[in-house]
């Protein structure tokens, strides 16, 4: 609809086509579609009779001959060819009669059926077809006797099952439901369906007449075809020969130019069509009413969301026209975006293998009205949206995000529908396609103002006064004497001769409803993307260079755009911004600098966005999720009504052609082949030459038409846009012409290449997002990645894997092809493992290979096992579906950095792959498969927590090992140790550790990323002193191992007398990676930079740093905290690590207080805490002695003493350094640290306890320290519970 139209075509229709039975070639079975039907039929028969499949091997065509499909042919098309739209015989033949020929007898229902179809060319431009199928009597004796013979054969075969007659296939066009047919007595049923007697019955065969047109004027074409059919079937011959009417519609009726309406004459009455102007929404002529009646608003919106996220969509109905109406409606409602992938609203029966396509598609599948959904075998359903139109229901893929403001949106659409008397629920009564809107008149629109749908008097509104076209139309309307303020059209136009509307009431209603609904949908996007232009990244290089690097370029600043959006929009928007349709939309924006060369949809969209901006000038658009209703419905509706009240142009009437006498007379009841000599070319005489539209139109509208046909102007731009479009898409529509195996193979090869390319782009995009490329300035992506975005990218990777795994499947089992393959592998592996030990096949060696880890021998690494990871997933009771299990398994493998390795192992079982996949499948193309695994390998460069962060409620086994120092053997240690492990999500509580083994395994709910371990002992026994090197904790599912360094004593009278310590840990990396810190991307803490060079701490020696180094240390620690708060909330690492970890704030302040500290005796350590306690005593005494100090000073002193007392009176056995750590954390939390430093620097105790050169005695250094600490004031620091346990402040 929206892409391009053949610009050279200025005619209403390009071809008139007749399809049907070719009596010369006789009855040829339509093999492919017959085979599909046969497969369905046998399944249906077996179910119906409760027999096992294959119990009765009938002939392939065990259906009765009347129900079989035979090949239809294009019998004639006029003219032979037009250069701007070459005639595609195969495609037209297939789509005019997608199921081939059907036969009926006089007992069947044989009403004419209308349907439309679409042919998409390689370049994405489209041609429309409108077909009317009807039945004609078969006159050929050969055909009748052939049918009789087929029946004799069939009845002989069927004789043995006469008493259990097969359930009948209801004819495609009958309206009767299977239940009614089954209710008929079985004998008459047999006679009706299984008999054709040449002497008694009349045989009818289907025939189809069709118009191929450049634009989709569905209503007009339907009327033309119905009138032509009527001319043949009515008792009176038509006024002129049929050729005159066909000639007229082919050569003398022009396309109406943009913004104009056109009237021309059919055989029995006028036909009106109108085309929107370049400032309106693009042409769309299918009834949206029908879509809402069939599916209901809720379902339509869900389907719309699937289409926007480029999920595979399969429509299913027994009416071709319904398939087309739903497909065209959904793609039309996407304005300004355009569906970029395979688009086949009617999939011919012979193309069913195309459902295997591993790409996003929107296809329509014809049902025979009898099989229900469960009988339909679809190659892939992991990410499929299945729409059963006739039964008003829709199956959605798992975890589909909600469309923003979904409820308000549904409310607004429902109000529009109600104003037209349509229910917002699916309406089962509308199976007749069109439900009539008789009771509603335009006059009722006035009363509708109360519903808030229409503004007061719209024509006086400011926006309309600005609009010149509307002003012109207004003047025009005044001349025609219609008052727009109060539209009052009489109800029955047929009796009311002076009525102004030039088309029937029904048609006007359809246009009004369509534009109302489309405006409401378009308004959602103008609101959502009102400031999108700000985020478009204009390329710095010239277009040629931009094109050659298009794959790698980011054309839109997604992170900034998303950070502006309300939280509830993010799940949908973050996925939508990744789609091909969004990328193409932005590409066309980049390529069009000025309004002149903008493509039609983009120009209309931009002008609407500008309007919204103009209205919001006073209050800049604050991003809220406030719902803004659509306000420009009236304007759009008036434009349509104006065109229909006054027709701009009437085409030349049909007239007699230059035909020989006797030509053009035909037998009534039969649609003839027409005289090709008169129809083969258009008028040549000067009078009509070039007269496709009046001259004044041509001048005025050349510009307009030019802009609308922009896509096919063969200039440089066209090439660019086309290339940009084809980047992500390989195919728009299957080749309908030649269905030889080689073509099918070629199609599959295109898919394989496409999948590989997609894999390359996805892995690259995910890495760029994760790593924060140095190459950001090259337009390569943004530095940060939000949790939502990471989930989006991983979900789209899972979707890609599902599509790869379902390409070329032999037999489908379950909804997830990947999980099904894994289960097969698991089964065969378990069988093989059951073999006696000596005979174990060599394949098992892979599994026992262990993963090295720098945890040393203290914690043997987990075995790498694909099966074990599957079992973990199978044990998670929260995951109920196969698709969910496959996704969880992918997430787990990503987190363990084993995805590529696991998949390689899975695919190394060649026997299994051969058994499950056809030869052409992606997984059996060795080179592509290797490259694919190689791309996945690149994920190992970054740390994902995509499993831990998503499955937050599952139970996980943890293994804890305490490693005592090797120097002083802990073997004499007599007390009972305990630990308590905390993570970002939860903490364990106190766990006793057996003192002989010092390790413990326990299971608890997912703790998230681990942050701290509290450990201590009960001080019992003779020797309760214990030097601990570190504690190791491992997650038993993801294999993540955390190391919590300690290096201190726990015990009374040793070190600082602490019986418990709080340890801060970080993820231990695998030694397989280099020791270089930088290769682990999202660093668990900011890189310590300079500090590493100064310090090598052995547990006991205190490092000596100079003041410069100390200042730098404090600066880096504060810097880390500031950076932490500048990240979006979802991406922040552990704050505890920045406060108490290696080189954190506590460490930095420790260096400050230790600098120049006098150590009194040789063997006694003095701790900072001792100094602070003395200072506290001093402050308390000065407070008592009422020494006059200002209010501020007293306030600070009171705080300081209060905190000191609280920490000293805690029941916990933390030592002096632990208390200092607690004080620093609380001071940072309550923004008091800089006050305390100032107090202590002035305190006389400092003079006693510090050397003269100490940092605390240097005023300028203390002042700069205070300034640095003040930067923490703007942050709201929340402390982890484990840091402040037992303190009630």
TrEMBL record:
One example GO MF annotation: guanyl-nucleotide exchange factor activity
Residues annotated as domain RUN: 788-952, 1136-1284
Phosphoprotein recorded as keyword: yes
Matching Pfam families: dDENN, DENN, PLAT, RUN, uDENN
Domain of life: Eukaryota
Domain UDENN: 54-599
PROSITE patterns, alphabetized: DENN, PLAT, RUN
InterPro entries: cDENN_dom (IPR001194), dDENN_dom (IPR005112), DEN5A/B (IPR047278), DENN_C (IPR043153), PLAT/LH2_dom (IPR001024), PLAT/LH2_dom_sf (IPR036392), PLAT_RAB6IP1 (IPR047277), RUN1_DENND5A (IPR047294)
Keyword Repeat applies: yes
Chain ranges of the PLAT domain: 956-1064
Subcellular location: Membrane
Gene Ontology cellular-component terms listed: cytosol; membrane; trans-Golgi network
Region of interest: Disordered: 682-706
Biological process annotations from GO: retrograde transport, endosome to Golgi
Keyword list, A-Z: Guanine-nucleotide releasing factor, Membrane, Phosphoprotein, Repeat
Similarity remark: Belongs to the RAB6IP1 family.
Protein name: DENN/MADD domain containing 5A
UniProt source species: Cyprinus carpio (Common carp)
Phylogenetic classification of the source organism: Eukaryota, Metazoa, Chordata, Craniata, Vertebrata
């Amino acid at each position: 609809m929206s892409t391009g139209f053949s610009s050279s075509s200025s005619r209403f229709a390009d071809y008139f086509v007749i399809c049907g039975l070719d009596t010369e070639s006789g009855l040829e079975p339509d093999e492919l579609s017959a085979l599909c039907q046969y497969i369905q039929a046998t399944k249906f028969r077996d179910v119906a009779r409760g027999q096992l499949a294959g119990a009765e091997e009938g002939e392939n065509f065990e259906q009765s001959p009347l129900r079989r499909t035979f090949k239809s042919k294009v019998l004639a098309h006029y003219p032979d060819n037009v250069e701007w739209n070459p005639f595609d015989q195969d495609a037209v033949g297939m789509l005019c009669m997608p199921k081939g020929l059907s036969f009926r007898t006089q007992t069947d229902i044989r009403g004419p059926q209308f349907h439309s179809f679409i042919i998409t060319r390689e370049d994405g431009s489209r041609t429309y077809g409108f077909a009317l199928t009807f039945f004609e009597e078969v006159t050929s004796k050969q055909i009748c006797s052939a049918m009789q013979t087929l029946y004799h054969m069939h009845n002989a075969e069927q004789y043995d099952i006469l008493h259990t007659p097969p359930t009948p296939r209801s004819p495609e066009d009958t309206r009767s439901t299977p239940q009614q047919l089954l209710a008929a007595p079985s004998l008459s049923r047999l006679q009706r369906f299984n008999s054709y007697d040449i002497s008694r019955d009349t045989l009818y065969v289907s025939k189809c007449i069709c118009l191929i047109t450049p634009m989709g004027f569905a209503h007009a074409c339907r009327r033309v075809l119905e009138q032509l059919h009527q001319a043949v079937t009515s008792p009176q011959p038509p006024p002129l020969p049929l050729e005159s009417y066909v000639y007229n519609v082919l050569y003398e009726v022009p396309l109406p130019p943009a913004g104009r309406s056109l009237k021309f004459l059919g055989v029995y009455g006028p036909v009106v069509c109108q085309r929107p102007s370049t400032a309106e929404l693009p042409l769309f002529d299918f009834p949206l009413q029908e879509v809402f009646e069939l599916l209901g608003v809720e379902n339509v919106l869900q389907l719309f969301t699937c289409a926007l996220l480029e999920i595979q969509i399969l429509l299913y109905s027994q009416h071709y026209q319904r398939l087309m109406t739903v497909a065209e409606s959904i793609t039309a409602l996407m304005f300004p975006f355009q569906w970029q992938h395979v688009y086949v609203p009617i999939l011919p029966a012979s193309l069913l293998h195309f459902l295997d396509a591993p790409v996003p598609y929107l296809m329509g599948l014809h049902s025979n009205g009898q099989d229900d959904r469960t009988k339909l075998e679809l190659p892939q359903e992991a990410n499929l949206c299945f729409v059963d139109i006739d039964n008003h229901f829709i199956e959605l893929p798992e975890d589909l995000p909600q469309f923003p403001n979904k409820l308000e949106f549904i409310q607004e659409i429902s109000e529009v529908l109600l104003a037209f008397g349509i229910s917002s629920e699916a309406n089962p009564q509308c199976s007749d396609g069109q439900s009539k809107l008789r009771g509603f008149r335009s006059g009722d629109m006035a009363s509708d103002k109360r519903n808030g749908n229409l503004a007061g008097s719209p024509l006086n509104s400011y926006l309309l006064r600005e609009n010149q076209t509307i002003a012109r139309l207004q003047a025009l309307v005044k001349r025609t004497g219609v008052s727009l303020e109060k539209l009052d059209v009489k109800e029955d136009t047929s009796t009311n001769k002076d009525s102004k509307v030039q088309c029937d009431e029904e048609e006007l209603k359809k246009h009004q409803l369509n534009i109302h609904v489309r405006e409401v949908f378009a308004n959602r996007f103008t609101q959502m993307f009102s400031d999108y232009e700000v985020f478009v990244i204009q390329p710095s290089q010239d277009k040629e260079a931009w094109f050659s690097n298009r794959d790698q370029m980011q054309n839109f600043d997604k992170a900034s755009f998303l950070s502006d959006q309300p939280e509830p929009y993010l799940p949908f928007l973050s996925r939508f911004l990744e789609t091909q349709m969004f990328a193409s939309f932005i590409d066309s924006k980049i390529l069009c600098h000025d309004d002149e060369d903008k493509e039609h949809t983009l120009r209309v969209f931009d002008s609407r966005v500008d309007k919204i901006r103009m209205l919001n000038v006073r209050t800049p658009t604050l991003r809220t999720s406030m719902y803004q209703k659509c306000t420009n419905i009236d304007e759009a509706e008036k434009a349509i009504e104006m065109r229909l009240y006054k027709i701009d142009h009437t085409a030349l009437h049909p007239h007699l052609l230059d035909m020989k006498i006797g030509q053009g007379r035909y037998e009534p009841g039969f649609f003839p082949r027409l005289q090709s000599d008169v129809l083969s070319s258009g008028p040549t005489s000067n009078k009509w030459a070039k007269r496709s539209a009046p001259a004044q139109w041509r001048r005025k509208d050349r510009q307009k038409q030019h802009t609308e046909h922009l896509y096919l102007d063969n200039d440089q731009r066209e090439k660019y846009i086309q290339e940009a479009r084809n980047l992500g898409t390989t195919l728009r529509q299957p080749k309908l012409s030649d269905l030889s195996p080689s073509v099918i193979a070629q199609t599959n090869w295109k898919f394989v290449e496409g999948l590989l390319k997609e894999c390359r782009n996805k892995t690259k995009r995910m890495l760029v997002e994760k790593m924060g490329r140095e190459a950001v300035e090259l337009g390569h992506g943004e530095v940060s990645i939000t949790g939502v975005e990471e989930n989006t990218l991983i979900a789209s990777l899972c979707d890609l894997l599902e599509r790869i795994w379902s390409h070329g499947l032999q037999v489908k089992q379950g909804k997830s092809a990947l999980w099904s393959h894994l289960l097969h592998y698991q089964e065969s592996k378990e069988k093989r493992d059951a073999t006696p030990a000596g005979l174990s096949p060599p394949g098992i060696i892979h599994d026992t290979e262990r993963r090295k880890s720098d945890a040393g021998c203290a914690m043997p690494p987990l075995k790498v096992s694909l099966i074990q990871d599957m079992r973990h997933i199978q044990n998670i009771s929260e995951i109920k579906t196969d698709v969910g299990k496959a996704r969880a398994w992918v997430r787990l493998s990503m987190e363990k950095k084993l995805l590529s390795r696991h998949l390689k192992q899975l695919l190394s079982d060649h026997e299994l792959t051969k058994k499950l996949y056809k030869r052409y499948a992606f997984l059996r193309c060795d080179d592509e498969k290797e490259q694919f695994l190689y791309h996945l390998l690149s994920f190992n460069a970054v740390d994902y927590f995509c499993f831990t962060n998503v499955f937050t409620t599952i139970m996980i086994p943890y293994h804890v090992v305490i490693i005592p120092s090797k120097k002083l053997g802990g073997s004499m240690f007599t007390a009972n140790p305990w630990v308590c492990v905390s993570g970002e999500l939860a903490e364990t509580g106190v766990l006793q550790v057996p003192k002989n083994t010092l390790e413990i395994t326990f299971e608890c709910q997912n703790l998230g990323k681990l942050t701290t371990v509290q450990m201590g002992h009960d001080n019992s026994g003779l020797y309760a002193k214990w030097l601990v090197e570190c504690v190791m904790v491992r997650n038993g599912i993801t294999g993540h191992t955390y190391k919590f360094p300690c290096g201190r004593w726990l015990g009374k009278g040793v070190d600082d007398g602490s019986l418990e310590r709080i340890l801060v840990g970080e993820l231990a990396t695998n030694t397989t990676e280099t020791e270089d810190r930088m290769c682990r991307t999202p660093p668990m803490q900011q890189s310590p930079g300079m500090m590493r060079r100064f310090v090598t701490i052995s547990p006991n020696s205190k490092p000596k740093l100079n003041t410069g180094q100390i200042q730098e240390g404090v600066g880096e620690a504060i810097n880390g905290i500031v950076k932490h708060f500048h990240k979006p909330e979802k991406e922040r690492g552990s704050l505890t690590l920045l406060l108490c970890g290696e080189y954190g704030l506590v460490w930095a302040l420790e260096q400050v207080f230790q600098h120049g500290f006098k150590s009194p005796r040789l063997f006694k350590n003095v701790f900072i805490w001792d100094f602070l306690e003395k200072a506290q005593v001093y402050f308390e005494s000065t407070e008592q002695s009422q020494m006059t100090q200002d209010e501020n000073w007293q306030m600070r002193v009171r705080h300081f003493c209060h905190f000191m007392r609280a920490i000293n009176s805690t029941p916990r056995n933390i030592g002096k350094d632990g208390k200092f750590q607690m004080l620093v954390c609380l001071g940072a939390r309550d923004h008091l640290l800089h006050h305390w430093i100032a107090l202590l620097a002035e305190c006389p105790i400092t003079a006693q306890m510090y050397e003269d050169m100490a940092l605390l005695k240097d005023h300028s250094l203390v002042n700069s320290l205070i300034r640095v600490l003040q930067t923490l004031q703007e942050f709201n620091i929340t402390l982890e519970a484990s840091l402040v346990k037992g303190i009630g402040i």
